[in-house]
Design brief:
The chain is 80% helix and 0% strand. With 176 residues, the protein is mainly alpha-helical. The protein has one domain. The chain is globular and about 50 Å long. The N and C termini lie far apart (43 Å).
Length: 176
């Protein structure tokens, strides 16, 4: 593996472990775009394997989520006068979101198989829940580092983003 990619992966892992923040990510439009593609791919896979929707619906939902995340983050950074951090924050959010999604894909797929057969999901359900909660904490951590506010405030902002995203996606793609 190329040393630059290894270094990037270490940084992303350290962000997910709350040891680093978006300021530790290289500010690069190219890197931001690559992490967006990873975020879209992993999100599409997670939705596709975790629910009974078509591939195009999964891609659409993941794209809408990425758009909402981008707009939410841009407005948040602009409101708190940290617009100059946009590339680094988005790179960190896309990269950490992609990593967490990739970790959850096999679990979500297995969870979907078990629930479609009406079998007990037990520990598997808890593992998916823990990954979702940790992803929530990681996003709040990135926002805290970006806007320099208290973690509680950033947890609330993260909840607002997740709620907004869920509502808008369900508005555009109503549950069957």
């Amino acid at each position: 593996m190329n040393e630059n990619y290894r270094s990037l992966l270490k940084t992303i892992c350290r962000i997910c472990l709350l040891r680093k923040g978006p300021r530790d990510v290289v500010e690069s439009a190219y890197l931001q775009r690559m992490m967006l593609y990873c975020y879209l791919f992993s999100g599409s896979c997670s939705i596709y394997f975790g629910s009974q929707v078509s591939l195009w619906t999964a891609v659409g939902q993941a794209s809408l989520d990425a758009l909402i995340l981008t707009l939410f983050s841009y407005l948040l950074l602009a409101y708190f006068s940290f617009s100059s951090r946009f590339k680094q924050v988005m790179t960190a959010l896309y990269a950490s979101g992609a990593l967490m999604s990739m970790l959850s894909i096999p679990l979500v797929y297995r969870l979907e198989l078990l629930s479609s057969k009406q079998q007990d999901i037990g520990l598997l359900g808890w593992l998916v829940f823990i990954i979702m909660c940790w992803s929530f904490v990681v996003m709040a951590h990135i926002l805290r580092e970006a806007i320099q506010k208290h973690l509680t405030t950033c947890l609330l902002l993260t909840f607002c983003y997740i709620y907004l995203s869920y509502q808008l996606i369900n508005l555009v793609y109503p549950q069957m």
